[in-house]
Input
Amino acid sequence: MVGTPADGTRLHILTWLREPGHAAHGVTAEAVAARFGMPHPVALTHLRLLTAVGLLHTSHLAGRPHYRRDEVRIAEVAAVFEKGWGHTPPRGDPGSVK
Output
């Protein structure tokens, strides 16, 4: 998901979007493509995936989509990983998987 591909591109995009200017206004797919040296369609694929999983929001400025981080959703996902992604309740618990 976010960690794929193995080179960490999506994580780099999320980190870059944390910078003050980008955090406030968002960035276009063209800006992502230029910053990371990738074709526009590849940048758009990364941005759409991050949007689909809820880590980015889009807004339209001058008729073009701009992508910004969803800090609330990112915090929720981080909390899941901090608790332990693979943790399952002991057997017999009402919430256990059988």
Q: What stands out?
A: The chain has five helices and two strands. The first strand starts at residue 56 and ends at 61. The two ends are 26 Å apart (CA to CA).
